User: Fold this.
Amino acid sequence: MNQRRGTRTWMAGTVAAVLLLAACGSEGGLTIDDTWGRTSPSAAANGAFYMTIGNDTGQADVLESVSTDACGTVELHQTTMVDDVMRMSPVEGGIEIPAHGEAVLEPGGFHVMCLDKQVAFDEGVTVDLTLHFAVAGDRTVEAEIRSE
Amino acid sequence: MLDGGGGTVKRALPYLFAVLLGVVVALAIVVPRLRPHEFVGTVLDDPEPAPALTLTAAGGEQVSLDDFTGKAVLLYFGYTSCPDVCPTTLAALADALDELGSRRDEVQVVMVTVDPARDTPELLASYVAHFDPSFIGLGGTAEEIATAASAYGIYYQKGEGTVETGYEVDHTAQVMLIDPQGRYREVLPFGLDGAAIAGDVAEYL
Assistant:
């Protein structure tokens, strides 16, 4: 009887601990989802990565830079369109993720530009990206190379 | 008399409903087919022969738009170092061919470089083949490229940097649609998906 009660207490404790850990995990502040890079020919010197960064906190953060071994140089870029002309320019001061908001990096908008690709951007390849945030610090995520 | 008449109407009601239902279903099937195709691109009012264009493919072969008479041509100006817009567009064009299925052979995708200093015809061929083996990449001298771009109203401007340090090229990101008779029909804006492009292309096949 005592032994059974002990087991129950132990189980309840485990469940509580797991729930607590799960809660802590989701309270990390920034969520980085759908991190991907487009497949590109070996003939293409450069590539691009995209992702969605969510910010659960009440404080805005800024993606200041990105580093990875997969590229010679990494720059944060923005494509803007004026009269059907696509213009790419470095993002001054990084990409802001508003408090309780998100920043979407997607084709034709913000993107992580990978200059001088060091790996093949083939379907299924994964690349580690370290994102440097002003507030949240460094976060390393895995980007999947896929066609879209 | 009146009661009897009312009874007839009541008895006829289910039939009336059945007929009405039939009409509604028939209209629902027929009307969408009657509605004209809604073009996603900007359709040119007076289709004129597409400006002539002769440039260099891999191996030094001279290729003209005239060579593709009988096929619709999707013409795009871009460059191989372009990381965002060009691969997005070429991937959408490849999807469009897939959407067209057996009619894909009636369409030719041609990419002309706006970066002749770096994009050789060989590099272009290797680049476009990644998206679809049927795609053709064309290069040429700076003057030839300038002439071709200006004929299609394509703006491009090289950014700061050298071949060694790298640079970007701002450029008009649209795709020109030329019908199988060689007439310039449509301008497709950036950001369309393959199905949308295929829908417009199919109208000319």
Remarks:
- Chain B touches chain A at residues 80-85, 87-88, 91, 95, 123-124, 126-127, 129-131, 155, 159, 166, 168, 170-174, 189-191 (CB under 8 Å).
- The helical segments of chain B are 2-34, 85-100, 121-131, 142-151, 194-202.
